[in-house]
């Protein structure tokens, strides 16, 4: 058990050092969500108008952008495996007396802490968008972002364990990122979308993560017709959403651990 803890701690600490020592990555990971808020907000707020009483399009999109930030950073966790493999560092890690499950867990935890940090940084924009923010909301948001980050880290690590090059991983990420983001309700409500897109959103784990964060900020409408996600005519609560996210996350992490052990 001590070796497992050591593997988790060492691997997580290295992921944190890698992120915070890379100023370019630190700045760019914050810039992209802000640009999306500015571009989409400026372009559609006046056109679409209010989605809820006192809630314009930018305010609607803002919680989804926070969830998307955690999702995007977590999904890129697999890149560390590919990078370590290409430069030979992974072999050095694997010959050490560290359990591979601990390595996967450490990478997921390290990435989740980074994603949480980035998500919380986005909160500085709340006053400028007239989004109510208090200590109670932040305390509720932290475990939600942690669970979202851990779950999607599992997806990224699963993909990274199957990739041989950084170019291949980046290409797969580009193919996955946009469909998952646009089919999750980050940028628009899912209540009136075509049936095929609604069905696709139900099997998209980011849908439930974005819905949970949005409900924390904006509340959940009683009928789910505007911002709530409904599954089999049941309007999802924050707890329901997080149960789905955790279920996806367990599948991703366990599969990633198995794939990592077989491949390397």
Automatic annotation (TrEMBL):
**Per its UniProt entry, which superkingdom is the organism in?**
Bacteria
What subcellular compartments does it reside in?
Answer: Cell membrane; Membrane
Residue stretches making up the ABC transmembrane type-2 domain: 24-263
Q: How does it sit in the membrane?
A: Multi-pass membrane protein
Name the keywords, alphabetized.
Answer: Cell membrane, Membrane, Transmembrane, Transmembrane helix, Transport
Q: Which Pfam families match?
A: ABC2_membrane
| Chief localisation class | membrane
Membrane-spanning ranges = 26-48, 60-83, 104-129, 135-159, 171-190, 242-260
Give the range the annotation lists for the signal sequence: none
Q: What family is this protein classified in?
A: Belongs to the ABC-2 integral membrane protein family.
List, alphabetically, the PANTHER family matched: NODULATION PROTEIN J
Protein name (Swiss-Prot/TrEMBL):
Transport permease protein
């Amino acid at each position: 058990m001590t070796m497992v803890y050591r593997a988790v701690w060492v691997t997580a600490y290295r992921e944190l050092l890698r992120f915070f020592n890379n100023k370019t990555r630190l700045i760019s990971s914050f810039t992209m969500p802000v640009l999306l808020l500015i571009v989409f907000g400026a372009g559609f707020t006046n056109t679409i108008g209010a989605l809820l009483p006192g809630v314009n399009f930018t305010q609607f999109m803002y919680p989804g952008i926070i969830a998307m930030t955690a999702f995007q950073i977590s999904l890129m966790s697999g890149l560390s495996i590919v990078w370590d493999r290409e430069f030979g560092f992974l072999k050095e890690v694997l010959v050490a007396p560290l359990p591979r499950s601990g390595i996967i867990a450490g990478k997921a935890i390290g990435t989740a802490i980074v994603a949480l940090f980035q998500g919380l940084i986005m909160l500085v924009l709340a006053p400028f968008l007239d989004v109510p923010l208090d200590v109670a909301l932040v305390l509720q948001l932290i475990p939600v972002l942690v669970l979202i980050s851990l779950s999607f880290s599992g997806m990224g690590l699963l993909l990274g364990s199957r990739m041989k090059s950084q170019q291949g991983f980046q290409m797969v990420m580009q193919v996955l990122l946009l469909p998952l983001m646009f089919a999750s309700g980050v940028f628009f409500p899912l209540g009136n979308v075509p049936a095929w897109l609604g069905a696709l959103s139900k099997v998209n784990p980011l849908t439930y993560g974005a819905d949970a964060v949005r409900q924390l900020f904006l509340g959940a409408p009683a009928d789910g017709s505007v911002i709530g996600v409904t599954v089999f005519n049941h309007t999802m609560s924050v707890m329901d959403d997080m149960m789905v996210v955790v279920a996806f996350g367990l599948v991703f992490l366990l599969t990633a651990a198995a794939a990592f052990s077989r491949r390397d």
